[in-house]
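Appendix B. Chain record.
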Amino acid sequence: MYQLYWAQETGAMAPQILLEEAGADYQRVIVEAGMEEKTGYLAINPRGQIPAIMLPDGTIMTESAAIALHIADSHPESKLLPATGSTERAQVYRWLFYAVANLYETDLRLYDSERFTTNPDCADSVKRQARKDMDRAFELIEQQLGDGPYLLGEQYSVIDPYLLMLAYWHEQPSELLARNPRLKRLCETVQQRPAVQRIWSQHYPVG
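C-alpha coordinates predicted for this chain:
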Protein backbone atom coordinates (compact mmCIF):
# COMPACT_ATOMS: atom_id res chain seq x y z
CA MET A 1 0.00 0.00 0.00
CA TYR A 2 1.10 3.53 -0.79
CA GLN A 3 0.90 6.23 1.86
CA LEU A 4 0.36 9.67 0.35
CA TYR A 5 1.23 12.55 2.65
CA TRP A 6 -1.52 14.95 1.74
CA ALA A 7 -3.03 18.39 2.29
CA GLN A 8 -5.48 20.55 0.38
CA GLU A 9 -4.13 23.06 -2.12
CA THR A 10 -0.80 21.27 -2.48
CA GLY A 11 0.98 19.19 -5.07
CA ALA A 12 -0.67 16.07 -3.64
CA MET A 13 -3.60 16.41 -6.01
CA ALA A 14 -1.97 15.15 -9.23
CA PRO A 15 -0.34 12.09 -7.61
CA GLN A 16 -3.63 11.24 -5.92
CA ILE A 17 -5.47 11.39 -9.24
CA LEU A 18 -2.89 9.07 -10.77
CA LEU A 19 -3.16 6.61 -7.88
CA GLU A 20 -6.91 6.57 -8.51
CA GLU A 21 -6.39 6.14 -12.26
CA ALA A 22 -4.09 3.19 -11.57
CA GLY A 23 -6.50 1.59 -9.11
CA ALA A 24 -3.64 1.49 -6.62
CA ASP A 25 -4.14 0.68 -2.96
CA TYR A 26 -3.26 3.81 -0.98
CA GLN A 27 -4.18 5.83 2.04
CA ARG A 28 -3.94 9.53 2.70
CA VAL A 29 -1.87 10.74 5.62
CA ILE A 30 -3.18 14.25 6.23
CA VAL A 31 -0.53 16.82 7.15
CA GLU A 32 -1.97 19.95 8.75
CA ALA A 33 -0.45 23.28 7.75
CA GLY A 34 1.96 24.58 10.36
CA MET A 35 2.13 21.20 12.10
CA GLU A 36 4.90 19.65 10.02
CA GLU A 37 7.49 19.77 12.78
CA LYS A 38 5.18 18.74 15.61
CA THR A 39 3.77 15.77 13.72
CA GLY A 40 7.17 14.47 12.66
CA TYR A 41 6.58 15.16 8.98
CA LEU A 42 10.02 16.75 8.68
CA ALA A 43 11.46 13.29 9.23
CA ILE A 44 9.61 12.25 6.07
CA ASN A 45 10.50 15.34 4.04
CA PRO A 46 13.06 17.65 5.70
CA ARG A 47 11.93 20.52 3.46
CA GLY A 48 8.40 20.23 4.82
CA GLN A 49 6.85 20.30 1.36
CA ILE A 50 3.76 18.29 0.49
CA PRO A 51 3.36 15.78 -1.02
CA ALA A 52 5.60 12.93 -0.09
CA ILE A 53 4.75 9.32 -0.66
CA MET A 54 5.81 6.10 1.02
CA LEU A 55 6.06 3.35 -1.56
CA PRO A 56 4.85 -0.16 -0.74
CA ASP A 57 8.41 -1.21 0.14
CA GLY A 58 8.78 1.68 2.61
CA THR A 59 10.87 3.96 0.37
CA ILE A 60 10.06 7.67 0.65
CA MET A 61 9.69 9.83 -2.44
CA THR A 62 9.20 13.58 -2.63
CA GLU A 63 8.64 15.95 -5.60
CA SER A 64 5.18 15.67 -7.12
CA ALA A 65 6.32 15.29 -10.73
CA ALA A 66 8.76 12.50 -9.84
CA ILE A 67 6.00 10.78 -7.85
CA ALA A 68 3.65 11.09 -10.82
CA LEU A 69 6.16 9.48 -13.18
CA HIS A 70 6.89 6.67 -10.73
CA ILE A 71 3.21 5.85 -10.30
CA ALA A 72 2.81 5.68 -14.07
CA ASP A 73 5.90 3.49 -14.47
CA SER A 74 4.77 1.19 -11.65
CA HIS A 75 1.34 0.66 -13.23
CA PRO A 76 1.98 0.31 -16.96
CA GLU A 77 -1.39 -1.34 -17.45
CA SER A 78 -2.99 2.03 -16.72
CA LYS A 79 -1.26 3.57 -19.76
CA LEU A 80 -0.53 6.83 -17.98
CA LEU A 81 2.65 7.29 -20.03
CA PRO A 82 3.32 6.64 -23.73
CA ALA A 83 5.78 3.96 -24.75
CA THR A 84 9.37 4.29 -23.53
CA GLY A 85 11.51 6.04 -26.12
CA SER A 86 8.56 7.38 -28.08
CA THR A 87 8.22 10.97 -29.24
CA GLU A 88 4.99 11.20 -27.26
CA ARG A 89 6.76 10.22 -24.05
CA ALA A 90 9.43 12.82 -24.76
CA GLN A 91 6.71 15.46 -25.04
CA VAL A 92 5.25 14.44 -21.67
CA TYR A 93 8.69 14.79 -20.11
CA ARG A 94 9.19 18.15 -21.77
CA TRP A 95 5.95 19.71 -20.60
CA LEU A 96 5.96 18.12 -17.17
CA PHE A 97 9.39 19.55 -16.45
CA TYR A 98 8.29 22.85 -17.99
CA ALA A 99 5.31 22.92 -15.63
CA VAL A 100 7.49 22.31 -12.59
CA ALA A 101 10.15 24.85 -13.59
CA ASN A 102 7.74 27.59 -14.64
CA LEU A 103 4.18 27.17 -13.38
CA TYR A 104 4.86 25.50 -10.03
CA GLU A 105 7.69 27.96 -9.39
CA THR A 106 5.51 31.00 -10.05
CA ASP A 107 2.92 29.66 -7.61
CA LEU A 108 5.58 29.55 -4.91
CA ARG A 109 6.57 33.14 -5.63
CA LEU A 110 2.94 34.25 -5.64
CA TYR A 111 1.74 32.58 -2.46
CA ASP A 112 4.96 32.55 -0.45
CA SER A 113 6.55 35.73 -1.76
CA GLU A 114 8.33 36.61 1.50
CA ARG A 115 10.72 33.71 0.91
CA PHE A 116 11.93 35.26 -2.34
CA THR A 117 13.24 38.55 -1.00
CA THR A 118 15.22 39.74 1.99
CA ASN A 119 13.30 43.02 1.92
CA PRO A 120 9.72 42.69 3.22
CA ASP A 121 8.81 45.86 1.33
CA CYS A 122 9.50 44.03 -1.94
CA ALA A 123 7.02 41.19 -1.39
CA ASP A 124 4.28 42.90 -3.40
CA SER A 125 6.67 43.38 -6.29
CA VAL A 126 7.53 39.68 -6.17
CA LYS A 127 3.82 38.84 -6.34
CA ARG A 128 3.19 41.15 -9.30
CA GLN A 129 6.01 39.64 -11.29
CA ALA A 130 4.88 36.11 -10.38
CA ARG A 131 1.40 36.84 -11.75
CA LYS A 132 2.85 38.05 -15.05
CA ASP A 133 5.22 35.10 -15.33
CA MET A 134 2.45 32.63 -14.51
CA ASP A 135 0.10 33.95 -17.16
CA ARG A 136 2.89 34.00 -19.73
CA ALA A 137 3.78 30.39 -18.89
CA PHE A 138 0.17 29.29 -19.31
CA GLU A 139 0.01 31.08 -22.67
CA LEU A 140 2.81 28.84 -23.93
CA ILE A 141 0.87 25.78 -22.79
CA GLU A 142 -2.16 27.11 -24.65
CA GLN A 143 -0.12 27.43 -27.83
CA GLN A 144 1.11 23.85 -27.46
CA LEU A 145 -2.34 22.33 -27.10
CA GLY A 146 -3.86 21.16 -30.37
CA ASP A 147 -7.23 19.63 -31.11
CA GLY A 148 -7.12 17.83 -27.76
CA PRO A 149 -8.74 17.08 -25.58
CA TYR A 150 -5.43 16.24 -23.90
CA LEU A 151 -1.92 17.56 -24.40
CA LEU A 152 -1.13 14.48 -26.52
CA GLY A 153 -4.43 14.74 -28.37
CA GLU A 154 -6.58 11.70 -27.65
CA GLN A 155 -4.00 10.11 -25.33
CA TYR A 156 -4.36 10.85 -21.63
CA SER A 157 -1.14 10.98 -19.62
CA VAL A 158 0.38 12.22 -16.37
CA ILE A 159 0.80 15.78 -17.69
CA ASP A 160 -2.96 16.34 -17.96
CA PRO A 161 -3.95 16.09 -14.26
CA TYR A 162 -0.77 18.00 -13.43
CA LEU A 163 -1.92 20.91 -15.61
CA LEU A 164 -5.40 20.72 -14.08
CA MET A 165 -3.90 21.02 -10.61
CA LEU A 166 -1.76 24.01 -11.56
CA ALA A 167 -4.58 25.79 -13.37
CA TYR A 168 -6.73 25.68 -10.25
CA TRP A 169 -3.92 27.19 -8.19
CA HIS A 170 -4.31 30.37 -10.22
CA GLU A 171 -5.81 33.26 -8.24
CA GLN A 172 -8.64 33.49 -10.78
CA PRO A 173 -8.90 30.09 -12.49
CA SER A 174 -12.13 30.95 -14.30
CA GLU A 175 -10.49 34.01 -15.86
CA LEU A 176 -7.38 32.02 -16.74
CA LEU A 177 -9.46 29.38 -18.52
CA ALA A 178 -11.59 31.97 -20.30
CA ARG A 179 -8.40 33.43 -21.80
CA ASN A 180 -7.08 29.99 -22.72
CA PRO A 181 -9.90 27.95 -24.30
CA ARG A 182 -7.75 24.92 -25.15
CA LEU A 183 -6.52 24.73 -21.56
CA LYS A 184 -10.15 25.08 -20.45
CA ARG A 185 -11.14 22.13 -22.64
CA LEU A 186 -8.31 20.05 -21.18
CA CYS A 187 -9.26 20.88 -17.60
CA GLU A 188 -12.95 20.21 -18.15
CA THR A 189 -12.20 16.88 -19.81
CA VAL A 190 -9.86 15.76 -17.04
CA GLN A 191 -12.37 16.84 -14.39
CA GLN A 192 -14.96 14.50 -15.90
CA ARG A 193 -12.78 11.43 -15.53
CA PRO A 194 -14.12 9.06 -12.82
CA ALA A 195 -10.76 9.07 -10.97
CA VAL A 196 -10.94 12.85 -10.65
CA GLN A 197 -14.61 12.88 -9.73
CA ARG A 198 -13.93 10.52 -6.83
CA ILE A 199 -11.44 12.83 -5.13
CA TRP A 200 -12.35 16.34 -6.33
CA SER A 201 -14.39 17.25 -3.24
CA GLN A 202 -11.44 16.38 -1.00
CA HIS A 203 -9.51 19.20 -2.61
CA TYR A 204 -12.38 21.57 -3.36
CA PRO A 205 -15.20 20.96 -0.86
CA VAL A 206 -18.60 22.27 -1.82
CA GLY A 207 -19.88 25.10 0.36
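Further analysis of this model is presented in Appendix C.
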